[in-house]
Design a protein that fits this description.
This protein is α/β, with parallel strands linked by helices. It is 41% helix and 21% strand. The chain contains 8 helices and 11 strands. Helix 6 packs across helix 7. The mean pLDDT is 87.
């Protein structure tokens, strides 16, 4: 079953879309602003998003930008007739299609099927195990390369292995001893300082502001983790 995330601040529209989609055999997740949509996408397996443009807290365009940092899941924007400029902007930042309110249920379902078919044919349903991405940081384990916003970053083998460990487990905290054991494959004597030095070097290479890291975080008294930011 394909899961579709509906994001609109108008609950009547969300309820109507839910009825149409469930009747067509889809699973449905619901959000009422862009922030909720981004959070749900990080936590659930989502195959397509239907998203309104004008919403409180985080609008659809801002949510699109955030979503495209980590995901190529298809997004169909739900727009009003007067939002032509926003439609163009939405397509420019990564939306795949749009449909104008009030929408025809038959047309909506046809567009959903079309986008899902295209996404699956391109391999969107299968995770790319060799490529890890968090924010603008991308690790290609097949090529043993790391880029930030498309620019190649030169890492030592040890720095690479630490980054890979953390990116494979976003949000999970690893103690210095755990990192040392997994990366060095050795008994972690004196691991605290050794790992700290490598983490500092990693921050200097992958973070825009190493003093205030967005992704590579220290958890006081526990260790280190990487966050999507």
């Amino acid at each position: 079953m394909y899961n579709i995330l509906i994001c609109d601040d108008e609950k009547d529209i969300v309820s109507a879309l839910e009825i149409y989609l469930i009747s067509d055999g889809y699973g449905v997740k619901k959000a009422y602003n862009g922030k909720e949509a981004v959070r749900i996408l990080q936590q659930e397996e989502i195959h397509l998003i239907l998203m309104d443009i004008m919403m409180p807290e985080m609008d659809g365009i801002s949510a699109m930008v955030k979503i495209r940092e980590n995901s190529n899941v298809p997004v169909i924007l739900l727009t009003a007739k007067s939002e032509d400029t926003d439609k163009i902007l939405g397509l420019n930042v990564g939306a795949d299609d749009y449909i104008t309110k009030p929408f025809n249920p038959v047309e909506l379902l046809a567009r959903v099927r079309s986008q899902l078919r295209r996404y699956m044919q391109l391999g969107g349903g299968a995770p790319q195990k060799d490529i890890l991405a968090i924010g603008g940081i991308e690790l290609n384990d097949r090529e043993k390369e790391v880029t930030r916003d498309g620019e190649l970053i030169a890492l030592t083998p040890t720095e690479y292995d630490i980054l890979k460990l953390l990116m494979e487990n976003p949000g999970k905290v690893f103690s210095p001893k755990q990192i040392y054991e997994k990366v060095w494959n050795d008994y972690p004597i004196g691991s605290e300082n050794t790992v700290a030095v490598h983490i500092r070097h990693l921050r200097e290479k992958v973070e825009y502001n190493p003093a205030e890291p967005r992704h590579l975080k220290a958890v006081w008294g526990r260790g280190y983790k990487i966050e999507r930011g």
